[in-house]
């Protein structure tokens, strides 16, 4: 596991320890339980697992309200359990990425408690304060439905503190060099425990103006704000040469290349632009959104890579769509009760909900995902078609426990359902008795098997990450074929990935300058006919097929 370029075409599986697998029957997932399920990740062929926050926390924001950066919440295990999990994952060739929340802490973090108690304490300047809130910088909070602004009053300190997220999550003053050193030490700590890299939560808000005077990192000893992340990269690579930093930077498309720092800051970024467009396009049976996403994205070749995804553990954020499509998506994908819409930007629905439980459409979406240049992130449960529970508050709707089999609580826990961190879905079309991993594991036509096959196909096709990418002109707006040329001389190959998003049969003819005798089906059930110089794809509804041949 010393390949420094492993992340260029990685498959990353996202899970929450709290809802993945419970080993001791208390209703909470834990690291021991996650160890028991590593075979599932191995079978899926994932290269890395991204673990969402597991640190001590009051859990008012699913663990993104961190109370201690250097511990494990006792309900989820111990530091020894984390190290054991990392060791067992490494034995399978799976790297471990942890989620670090450096924009803010919980108001129960010791730093904030000491900051409130003593204005002369060094910790007071770990946060941002004002005694004149009417004159202070103000703007819309990131959670506008729940927070009136970015200032909240603390009685102990007798001041207002700055927070871009919930009021119980005070922003850290990253302009303070002492705070930055604390964060660098946290990176070193988790690398020492066995982590291989980090998802840095809220990277964009970290760089936004903060505090009474709307100060930024431009006002510090850093040459420019991106140096914060450049220094993080220096820290992690000094400890482990193949460690990576993955940014959650949901910024405007024209600004996204900044987070790579000319190849010296983040290695990877989540591709929110492609996420909104790809998932929308598959849902509305049209390929123009993919073309638009690729036009919007900056060229980052040579400096970093995208991590593409269909859904994540938050709302499906639609802000990157054009206004007409944004308005359409709000109604088109919304639930009948009208309560899936949140934060005025997206739906708190899973992929299966967006596609009405159609496993064929979910599968073709995954085929597009796996065949795009870059890396891939999978949301735990999407590989089997789990749905959302809209009776749960806010984002918790898409954070229900993994459904392993048809036993009580879907095999997640032996506890009473009322004792589970979140209840398992036990009613409707997405109930665990209908949707679970055990029922799909040995069925070659199941969604799980198709996602597993796509993951293996991607591993077999280095052209996707390292070849030359192009788009043949399509005959239909519902079909998409993209091409990769890879290799040199006699070893040069062409990979064609064809997809039909339509509700009916389509034929698509494209050039295929390969030796017809060398053409092979890599994955997918779509039909095709190869002739000299071209190929005709014969695609039923939601069909896909990848073909590879040796170039003449």
TrEMBL record:
<dbReference type="InterPro" id="IPR045857">
    <property type="entry name" value="O16G_dom_2"/>
</dbReference>
<dbReference type="GO" id="GO:0005975">
    <property type="term" value="P:carbohydrate metabolic process"/>
</dbReference>
<protein>
    <submittedName>
        <fullName>Alpha amylase catalytic region</fullName>
    </submittedName>
</protein>
<dbReference type="InterPro" id="IPR006047">
    <property type="entry name" value="GH13_cat_dom"/>
</dbReference>
<feature type="domain" description="Glycosyl hydrolase family 13 catalytic">
    <location>
        <begin position="14"/>
        <end position="438"/>
    </location>
</feature>
<dbReference type="InterPro" id="IPR017853">
    <property type="entry name" value="GH"/>
</dbReference>
<dbReference type="Pfam" id="PF00128">
    <property type="entry name" value="Alpha-amylase"/>
</dbReference>
